[in-house]
C-alpha cells in the first residue's frame, strides 16, 4: 500500500517537473513516505530526518516532507519535534501533494492530516515496474483489531467505484502492463460502503463481483489481490478464483495467531477452525495454490501453550511464506495499555523459534516445483546476470531463466514464458524455457 502511495506521489512530483536526484543527501526536495505499523518502522524516519534537518541549516531551500502513517499519527507534534519540516501529510492526502506543495511555496509550514474523502486519483503514478501495477480498490479499514494502528492512521473504508477501477486498469493495459494487484488493507471489505444489492438481497459490489467485472480487460494477463481477511473470505470468492483464468493461485491470508483465545483478544472475529476451512477449500479447488500469511508472536498475555498453537498451525498448513513479527505496542490501540505485556527476551525467543520452523516448511513447499513447468511472467532482466530474465510464477515465486531458449528465440519483459524449474532455493527458483 505504501509503495503504491509512493508511486503516486512520485508521479505528481515528476509531472510538476521534478527529476529524481542521484543521492538522498543532494536532493533539493526530500519526501519520506512513512510506516508506523511497528515501532522499529517508525523510528527509522527519525534517524533519516535528523540528517536532513542538519543539511537544511546549511541549505535553507531544501524542502522537507513527511508523508504517510507516521505523519498522520504524529501530526503537529512532528512539526514541533522537527521544526525544519515544510510539510506533514497523512496518507489520505497523497493525491493532493501538488496543492500542498504550492502552499509550502508561499512560505508556510503545512499540516495536512484531517480526515478526508479521498479524491479519485487522476494523477499518473510513476510506477517502478512497467509490467506489474498496484491498483488501490479500497482505502482505510473499519476493523478494530486491538493491536493495530491502521484504522487510526488510514481512516474509514472508502471503496473506489468499479468503473473507476476498470478505467485505471484499461489505461494500464493500453500502456503495456500485464499484471495488476488489487490493493486494500482488508480487501474483502471492498464495496460494503457502495450502494446496491442484487434482487436476492446480496450486496452487489463485492470483491468477487469486481473480479468478474474487470477480468476480461484485454492485455491484462494476471490479476492478484491483497490483503485478505479470514473473517470475510467467502466460498464464492474462492470459487471465482478457481473459475477465472487470470486470477493467480496465490492467497495472502494473515491468521495472526493459532490460538482462539488470543484471536478473541485481538478482536479478529474468526476461529482457527474457520481459517483451516478456508485453506482446505482453496486447496480442494486449486491444489497448486500458494498460501502466505502474517502472524504476530508474544501478543499481550500469550502463554507458551498459546504460542505453541501458532507453531502447530504453521506445521499443519505448510505456508509458502510467512511474515512474522513480535507484538509491538502502538499508540491509540487498546492492547498497548494492557498490563500483561510479554518481556522482550521472550518475544525474541518466540520469533526465533517460529522463523526457523517457517524456513523449514517453506523449503519443503518449494520442493514441489522441482522439474515442473511453470508459467512465468517476465518482469525484468536479472540485474546480476544480464543474460537472464526474472519474473514470477502464478503462485508468486521469483524465478530466473535464460533470455534465449534452445531454438534461439529470445524473450523480453512482458512475455509469458513456460519455464521448467531446475534449481530450488529458499526464496527463488531457476529454470530453462520449455518450448
Ligand atoms: N490488513 C491486514 C494487515 C495489515 S498490517 C490484516 O488484517 O491482516 C500488516 C501486518 O502487520 C499484520 O498482518 C500484522 O501481522 C502486523 N502487525 C500489525 N500491527 C502490529 C503490531 N502492533 N505489532 C506487530 N505486528 C503488527
Ligand atoms: Fe489492522 Fe488489518 Fe485489523 Fe484492519 S483488519 S485493523 S488493517 S490488522
Task: Indicate the topology.
Layout (H helix, E strand, L loop, with lengths): L1 H14 L13 E6 L4 H20 L4 E6 H6 L1 H6 L5 E3 L7 H9 L4 E3 L19 E5 L1 E2 L10 H5 L3 E2 L2 H13 L4 E5 L23 H8 L7 E5 L8 H9 L6 E3 L7 H7 L5 H14 L4 E8 L6 H14 L3 E6 L17 H23 L6 E10 L2 E9 L4 E5 L13 E9 L3 E6 L2
Parallel strand pairs: 1-2, 2-3, 3-4, 5-8, 8-9, 10-11, 11-12, 15-17
Antiparallel strand pairs: 6-7, 13-14, 13-16, 14-15, 16-17
Helix pairs in contact: 8-9, 9-11, 12-13
The protein binds S-adenosyl-L-homocysteine (SAH) and iron/sulfur cluster.
The site of S-adenosyl-L-homocysteine has 17 residues, from strand 11.
Residue share in helices? 25-40%
Total discrete domains = 3
Helix/strand order: HEHEHHEHEEEHEHEHEHEHHEHEHEEEEE
Largest sheet geometry: 5 strands, mixed, barrel
Mean pLDDT: 95
CATH superfamily of the largest domain: tm_1862 like domain
Query: What is the CATH fold-level name of the largest domain?
Result: pyruvate-formate lyase- activating enzyme
Physical arrangement of strands within the biggest beta sheet = 13-14-15-17-16
Radius of gyration: 23 Å
Q: State the end-to-end CA separation.
A: 37 Å
Q: Beta fraction of the residues?
A: 15-25%
What would CATH call the architecture of the largest domain?
Alpha-Beta Horseshoe
General form: globular
The CATH first-level class of the largest domain comes to: Alpha Beta
Question: What structural category do the secondary elements indicate?
Answer: alpha/beta
Task: Count helical runs.
Answer: 13
- pLDDT < 50 stretches: none
Number of distinct beta strands:
17
Heterogens: S-adenosyl-L-homocysteine, iron/sulfur cluster
Amino acid at each position: 500500500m505504501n509503495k503504491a502511495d509512493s508511486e503516486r506521489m512520485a508521479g505528481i512530483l515528476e509531472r510538476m517537473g521534478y527529476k529524481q536526484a542521484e543521492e538522498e543527501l543532494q536532493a533539493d526536495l526530500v519526501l519520506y513516505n512513512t510506516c508506523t505499523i511497528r515501532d522499529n518502522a517508525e523510528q527509522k524516519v527519525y534517524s533519516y530526518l535528523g540528517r536532513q534537518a542538519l543539511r537544511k541549516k546549511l541549505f535553507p531551500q531544501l524542502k522537507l516532507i513527511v508523508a504517510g502513517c507516521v505523519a498522520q499519527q504524529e501530526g503537529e507534534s512532528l512539526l514541533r519535534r522537527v521544526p525544519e519540516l515544510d510539510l506533514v501529510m497523512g496518507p489520505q492526502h497523497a493525491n493532493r501533494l501538488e496543492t500542498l506543495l504550492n502552499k509550502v511555496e508561499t512560505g508556510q509550514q503545512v499540516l495536512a492530516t484531517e480526515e478526508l474523502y479521498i479524491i479519485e486519483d487522476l494523477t499518473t503514478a510513476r510506477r517502478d515496474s512497467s509490467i506489474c501495477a498496484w491498483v488501490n480498490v479500497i482505502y482505510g479499514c473499519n476493523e478494530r483489531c486491538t493491536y493495530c494502528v491502521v484504522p487510526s492512521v488510514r481512516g474509514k473504508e472508502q471503496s473506489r467505484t468499479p468503473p473507476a477501477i476498470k478505467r485505471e486498469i484499461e489505461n494500464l493495459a493500453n500502456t503495456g502492463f500485464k499484471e495488476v494487484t488489487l490493493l486494500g488493507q482488508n480487501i474483502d471489505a471492498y464495496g460494503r460502503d457502495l450502494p446496491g444489492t442484487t434482487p436476492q438481497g446480496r450486496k452487489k459490489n463485492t470483491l468477487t463481483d469486481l473480479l468478474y467485472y474487470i477480468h476480461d480487460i484485454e492485455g491484462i494477463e494476471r490479476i492478484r489481490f491483497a490483503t485478505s481477511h479470514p473473517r470475510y473470505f467467502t466460498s464464492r470468492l474462492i470459487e471465482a478464483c478457481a473459475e477465472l483464468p487470470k486470477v493467480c493461485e496465490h492467497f495472502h491470508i494473515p491468521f495472526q495467531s493459532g490460538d482462539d483465545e488470543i484471536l478473541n483478544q485481538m478482536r479478529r472475529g474468526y476461529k482457527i477452525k474457520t481459517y483451516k476451512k478456508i485453506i482446505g477449500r482453496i486447496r480442494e479447488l486449486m491444489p497448486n495454490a500458494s498460501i502466505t500469511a502474517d502472524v504476530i508472536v508474544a501478543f499481550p498475555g500469550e502463554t507458551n501453550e498459546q504460542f505453541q498453537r501458532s507453531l502447530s498451525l504453521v506445521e499443519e498448513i505448510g505456508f509458502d511464506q510467512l511474515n512474522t513479527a513480535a507484538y509491538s505496542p502502538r499508540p491509540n490501540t487498546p492492547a498497548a495499555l494492557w498490563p500483561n505485556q510479554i518481556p522482550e527476551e521472550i518475544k525474541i525467543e518466540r520469533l526465533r523459534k517460529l522463523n526457523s520452523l517457517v524456513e523449514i516448511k517453506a523449503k519443503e513447499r518449494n520442493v514441489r516445483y522441482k522439474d515442473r513447468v511453470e508459467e512465468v511472467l517476465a518482469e525484468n532482466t536479472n540485474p546480476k546476470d544480464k543474460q537472464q530474465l526474472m519474473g514470477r510464477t502464478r503462485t508468486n515465486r521469483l524465478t530466473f531463466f535464460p533470455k534465449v531458449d534452445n531454438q534461439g528465440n529470445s524473450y523480453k519483459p512482458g512475455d509469458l514464458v513456460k519455464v521448467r524449474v531446475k534449481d530450488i532455493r529458499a526464496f527463488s527458483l531457476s529454470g530453462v524455457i520449455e518450448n
